[in-house]
Amino acid sequence: KQWYQRRVAITAGVGHKGKFGHEFLEFEFRPDGKLRYANNSNYKNDTMIRKECNVSAPVLKELARVIEEAEIMYEDDKMWPAPDRIGRQELEIVHKNQHICFNTSKIGSLVDVNSSKDPDGLRAFYYLVQDLKCFVFSLIGLHFKIKPI
Amino acid sequence: KQWYQRRVAITAGEEDDDIDRLKKSAHKKKGRGLARSDVLKGDFEELDGDTRPGAPQKSIEGWIIFVTNVHIEATENDIFDKFSEYGDIKNLHANLDRRTGYLKGYVCIEYEQHTEARAAVEALNGADFLGQELKVDWAFTRPGTKNKVKRKERRRGRSPSPDSD
């Protein structure tokens, strides 16, 4: 087994309590290749979508590359805005021998990033979360033929 | 805790890591089902296809291959042209890097037929594309690794029972 089949795991979640109840999106990659995805919204009385599949080693390897390229393992969420009423984002990554678990509020746009106390770190987080969502939406969307949003 | 709170697991569907570990720690194994334990693994929705560990897994409407090391300036058209030789492409996701606007470097491609997807994997894995060597493989596989190295477990105590694997 390659190291990325043993030592990469990532869990991410985005959520907020809004007009339509508790909306959240969560996904998780486990080292054995299991990918779990949950999307919950009470908008139009939608029920929760929960999907699970098993991705191949090359997918895990690419996930590891995306994480490394983002250089997120060098960052710290100490100076980032705390999760609040409006929402929260969470990212937990185990990568090789490092473990990070960051959380912060919802980030509206780059304006929020640039005006924060740690623009470089928060920017890395901001883009990584977007890249990860694209990655997951493609895999889950194609495998199950569902439109994630 | 009673022994049955630690060492009993009845599985009728999804395997969990804990359950795997639990089973592996059992010294005595009995039952004809043991030899075919793969039957209960994986997703129940699949009725056909290879159930061996590491085997490619079908998606709901087709077969999805995963391409990496794609040149970031490649266009969707370039990719489409390269891969359409092997079959009718039903879907192609060449995701962008959200920061740079270039390609992130991976592409998901769906073919309807297993034969088409396999042809693309075999023909294009390692092929040159705009100066970079493509990596092409299946996106979804059965859990577990193929070519498992069989390691003889050292058993302590009495000799193994005839039914164990």
Q: Which key phrases capture this entry?
A:
heterodimer; A: 149 residues; alpha+beta; 6-stranded antiparallel beta sheet; 3 helices; 6 strands; globular; B: 165 residues; 4-stranded antiparallel beta sheet; two-stranded antiparallel ribbon; 19% helix
Q: How does this model look, in words?
A:
The complex is a heterodimer of chains A (149) and B (165). Chain A has 149 residues and is an alpha+beta fold. Chain A has 3 helices and 6 strands, in the order ββββαββαα. Chain A has a 6-stranded antiparallel beta sheet, covered by helices on one side. The longest helix of chain A is centred in the last third of the chain and has 26 residues. Chain A starts with 7 loop residues before the first strand and ends in a 5-residue tail after the last helix. The model of chain A has no long low-confidence stretch (mean pLDDT 83). Helix content of chain B is 19%, strand content 15%. In chain B, the strands form 2 sheets. A 4-stranded antiparallel beta sheet of chain B has the order 2-3-1-6, covered by helices on one side. In chain B, a hairpin with a 2-residue loop joins strand 4 and strand 5. Chains A and B meet through strand 4, helix 1 and helix 3 of A and strand 1 and strand 6 of B.
Give the helices and strands, then pairings.
The complex is a heterodimer of chains A (149) and B (165).
Chain A: E1 8-18, E2 21-29, E3 34-40, E4 49-54, H1 57-70, E5 88-95, E6 98-104, H2 110-114, H3 119-144
Antiparallel strand pairs in A: 1-2, 1-5, 2-3, 3-4, 5-6
Chain B: H1 3-6, H2 17-25, E1 63-68, H3 76-83, E2 89-93, E3 107-111, H4 114-124, E4 128-129, E5 132-133, E6 135-138
